[in-house]
UniProtKB/TrEMBL annotation:
Pathway linked to the protein: Amino-acid biosynthesis; L-lysine biosynthesis via DAP pathway; (S)-tetrahydrodipicolinate from L-aspartate: step 3/4
Subunit structure comment from the entry: Homotetramer; dimer of dimers.
Pfam families, per the entry: DHDPS
Domain of life: Bacteria
Record's function text: Catalyzes the condensation of (S)-aspartate-beta-semialdehyde [(S)-ASA] and pyruvate to 4-hydroxy-tetrahydrodipicolinate (HTPA).
CDD domains on file: DHDPS
Protein name as it appears in the record: 4-hydroxy-tetrahydrodipicolinate synthase
EC category name: lyase
Lineage of the species this protein comes from: Bacteria, Pseudomonadati, Pseudomonadota, Alphaproteobacteria, Hyphomicrobiales
Reaction(s) this enzyme catalyzes, per UniProt: L-aspartate 4-semialdehyde + pyruvate = (2S,4S)-4-hydroxy-2,3,4,5-tetrahydrodipicolinate + H2O + H(+)
Keywords, sorted A to Z: Amino-acid biosynthesis, Cytoplasm, Diaminopimelate biosynthesis, Lyase, Lysine biosynthesis, Schiff base
Molecular function GO terms recorded: 4-hydroxy-tetrahydrodipicolinate synthase activity
Encoding gene (name): dapA
Active site, UniProt feature: Y147, K175
Site (Part of a proton relay during catalysis): residue numbering on this chain: S58, Y121
Length: 314
């Protein structure tokens, strides 16, 4: 498949850099979306130094959102951010046609870029992955960020395939959630100039940014946006001393965000902070009570205080 020559390469400088939370989706007890809390989270991030927001990524429970909700979340995020923050819209699907439709919606809604996960469950070949992403890039003229997260999709987007895709207009970067620094360095070495690599793995994100990654699409940034913004700025600026200090403080929190399946822990933490209600959609279930103290202690340590930082858990 050869993409249309009328489409443009999307320069790396059109994409946001730094701390980019993969935003949670607040919900009410009946499973409906809590729009008030959703807008308040955007306000909080805009005031906290966050550089951009991903809406409808894995952390946003996109797997259980309807197409109508998916589109409305993108639309509301763009409108409410109102230029204060770039919105990167999660538009991936295991159907190429659906991924194209979601990406086109995101373009019309005013999103800055689309984040497209490798098709899950149907396990395409590397050639299938190539033509899937090429079809999206050909159909929709906006920056496309590939998303490789084999632990969730059961398919791995190989570096060789990424390099082929990076030659295509509109394929502007990748979110690499493998946590494999050596693999990411090799990709940055081979990729064309202007191709952006984002970390999708909080424990290794600072190291990867010191080595040239553009930013961190993060779970942990949902709960410590100011600290994560400082960490990303330090890493991108080569301030190793600050990177060491912050990284050591937030390491337990990075781990605590995955004591159960994401986004169960991060939404629980935000609920205790008064940012949303602790509700999920089945098959996700509430955080086990044996995990509460792990998150409380890790957040207290990250914030550098021995005092309680969460409201008492009910």
């Amino acid at each position: 498949m050869t993409p249309a020559t009328t489409l443009r390469h999307s320069p790396c400088d059109l994409l946001p850099a730094g701390s980019i939370p993969a935003l949670v989706t607040p919900m009410c007890e009946d499973g409906s979306i809590d729009w008030s809390s959703f807008r308040a989270l955007i306000d909080w991030h805009a005031a906290s130094g966050t550089n951009a927001i991903v809406v409808m990524g894995s952390t946003g429970e996109t797997a259980t959102a309807s197409i109508e909700e998916h589109c409305e979340l993108i639309k509301v995020a763009v409108e409410h951010a109102n230029g204060r923050l770039p919105i990167i819209a999660g538009t991936g699907a295991n159907s190429t046609i659906e991924a194209i439709e979601l990406t086109e919606f995101a373009r019309k809604a005013g999103a800055s870029a689309a984040l497209s996960v490798a098709p899950y469950y149907n396990k395409p070949t590397q050639y299938g992955l190539f033509v899937h992403f090429a079809a999206i890039a050909e159909a929709v003229d906006m920056p496309l960020i590939l998303y490789n997260v084999p632990s969730r999709t059961a398919v791995d987007l190989h570096n060789e395939t990424v390099i082929r895709l990076a030659q295509i207009p509109n394929v502007a970067g990748i979110k690499d959630a493998t946590g494999d620094i050596g693999r990411a360095i090799d990709l940055m070495r081979q990729a064309p100039e202007g191709f952006a690599l984002y970390s999708g793995d909080d424990p290794t994100a600072a190291a990867l940014m010191l080595l040239g990654a553009r930013g961190n699409i993060s779970v942990t940034a949902n709960v410590i946006p100011e600290i994560m913004a400082r960490l990303c700025a330090a890493a991108r600026g080569g301030d190793v001393a600050t990177v060491r200090e912050i990284s050591r403080r937030i390491a337990p929190l990075n781990a605590a965000m995955f004591v159960e399946t994401n986004p169960i822990p991060v939404k629980w933490a935000l609920a205790q902070m008064g940012k949303l209600l602790p509700f999920y959609r089945l098959p996700l279930t509430p955080l086990g009570s044996d995990k509460h103290s792990i998150i409380e202690d890790a957040l207290a340590f990250a914030l550098g205080t021995g005092d309680p930082v969460l409201r008492a858990a009910s």
